Amino acid sequence: MRRRTFDSLLTAGGLVTTIVLAVAGVLLFVGYNFATSNVRSQLSQQHITMPAGPAIADPAIKPYLSKYAGQQMTNGAQAEAYANHFIAVHLKEVAGGKTYSEVSTLSRLNPEDATLQGQVQTLFRGETLRGLLLNAYAFWKVGQIALIAGIGAFAAAGVMALLTILGFWHLRRVSPTEEFLATPMEVSRVA
């Protein structure tokens, strides 16, 4: 195979790879923007203000929520902190640490127990809100991963673009008759 043909194939492959990586970077940034703005929009509409002051004095809460104290919830990190370190802590206090499933089973066995019925409702609502907030967190986190991947794709596209330019430069300098991986015997037959 002629060296020029081989170099042309590699350079064309580099150009295609550069384009693919650039398109991937754009799509990843679009995904990041969509996830981030969607989560921000949905959380902002709920008008949830992060607790502050005595509400976060509990040592199981304060280290996680103090940096967000008094802020409006607008991102996944805040939603995760609120769900896992505020709602979850308070739900453990509702029925002595029992889950919704456990209390619901007990309430079906004792349908006249008003305390159990109230605990079922509180745990159901709390776990539902917690689950919704954790879904917002997950969607936001996927957006953050897309941002990192997009930056990586653009960086790789830049490296490939540089290599492709060098490939075109090298292609102009290669002799049209030079063989690729030619053995000395093949070189003497060509000459």
Jot down its keywords.
191 residues; mainly alpha
Write structural notes for this entry.
The protein is mostly helical. The chain is elongated and about 95 Å long. The chain has one domain (3-190). Helix content is 75%, strand content 0%. The chain contains 6 helices and no strands.
Integer-rounded radius of gyration: 30 Å
Query: In terms of structural class, how would the helical and strand content be classed?
Result: mainly alpha
N-to-C span: 15 Å
Helicity, in percent? over 70%
Summarize the structure.
This protein is an all-alpha fold and 191 residues long. It has helices spanning 3-46, 62-65, 76-94, 100-109, 114-173, 184-190.
Draw up the topology in text.
Elements: H1 3-46, H2 62-65, H3 76-94, H4 100-109, H5 114-173, H6 184-190
Helix pairs in contact: 1-5, 3-5, 4-5
